């Protein structure tokens, strides 16, 4: 399939990109790695007349500490996330999740910003961002604003981004030292999107769960933050009965589509299985 024709723009600053997108209105679209957008254009599900390529904006790349937060530029690739020692030490769930996205070829160009801005419930990073309580830095016509990941996703391909907005960075509070985390993803084959997946970040104290956060991928129109399920687990040793109760609470908030990855009921149950596995692995890694 061949995409429709389009004009190509390559700004060198965020201000220039925002200005261009404002001028182009509905005819313009930001492009990052292109590994979600180009396939959509080939299928004619997206037909932007103008592409504004963010690849020439040096400010959008890189990973740095800012107090107790880590800030990751939107154009940082999934490959960069895997190679970052800072993330490997401080927020290892990002490396673990990146390694489960697609294949190396996609990860070399697919960006964190594109993955979280895309709004596809099949993308893996959004649920991890809900789990980590990340904040998105967005610049638009009215200047910069910050949007909590937990308030960003409104429906499939429908987010808090407004026309002309550029997501510039993702700010993530570093989880406490000694935390445990895991991302468990069921997929039909290497490189596939999730049938269901679960992200867990938890801390323990005296063998009991002191804090817990859970995100779920591809079992609703948006990524899900399973707040009630996590609450049930706090104070427990992750004994089988409590985990079962929490898993049931997580399953209750899912509403997956029946599709080529399986019927809705199966995908809900697989979310529960992924959560059970992620909890066990996260607890095994936690020190406290
Ligand atoms: C074969 C294949 C398998 C894949 N498997 C997986 C998988 O298992 N899990 C997974 O999560 N993903 C998967 N992907 C998607 C891949 O991770 C994409 O790279 C990613 O979803 C989008 O990132 P991108 O940089 O390519 O964004 P693009 O495709 O360039 O953009 C995606 C959307 O986000 C918008 N956008 C991008 N950046 C910004 C920004 N900074 N500000 C505002 N809007 C922006 C664009 O306008 C567009 O609407 C797969 C892709 C392929 C081709």
Q: How many strand units?
A: 14
* Helix and strand composition category: alpha+beta
Rounded to the nearest angstrom, the distance between the terminal CA atoms is 54 Å
Largest sheet: 5 strands, antiparallel
CATH class of the largest domain: Alpha Beta
- Give the overall silhouette: globular
- Radius of gyration computed on alpha carbons: 19 Å
Elements, N to C (H/E): EHEHEEEHHHHHHEEEEEEEEEHHH
As a percent range, the share of helical residues equals 25-40%
How many helical elements? 11
Strands of the widest sheet, in order across it, are: 4-5-10-6-7
Please mark out the parts with pLDDT under 50 across 5 or more consecutive residues, or reply none.
Answer: none
Note down, in words, how this protein is organized.
- The protein is an alpha+beta fold and 288 residues long.
- It folds into 3 domains: 7-53, 2-Layer Sandwich (Uridine Diphospho-n-acetylenolpyruvylglucosamine Reductase, domain 2), CATH 3.30.43; 61-173, Uridine Diphospho-n-acetylenolpyruvylglucosamine Reductase, domain 3 (2-Layer Sandwich); 181-283, CO dehydrogenase flavoprotein, C-terminal domain (Enolase-like, domain 1, 2-Layer Sandwich), CATH 3.30.390.50.
- The chain is 34% helix and 26% strand.
- It contains 11 helices and 14 strands.
- The protein has helices spanning 14-24, 37-42, 78-83, 85-90, 92-98, 104-109, 112-117, 125-132, 227-233, 240-252, 264-285, and strands spanning 7-9, 28-31, 50-53, 63-66, 69-73, 135-140, 143-148, 153-155, 158-159, 166-173, 180-186, 196-205, 208-217, 224-225.
- It has a 5-stranded antiparallel sheet with strand order 4-5-10-6-7. Strands 11-12-13-14 form a 4-stranded antiparallel sheet. A 3-stranded parallel sheet has the order 1-3-2, with helices on one face.
- Strand 2, helix 2 (37-42) and strand 3 (50-53) form a beta-alpha-beta unit.
- Helix 9 packs antiparallel against helix 10 and helix 10 crosses helix 11.
- The radius of gyration is 19 Å and the shape is globular.
- The mean pLDDT is 97.
- The protein binds flavin-adenine dinucleotide (FAD).
- Flavin-adenine dinucleotide binds at residues 29-37, 39, 54, 74, 101-102, 106, 110-111, 113-115, 117-118, 123-124, 161, 165-167, 191, 193.
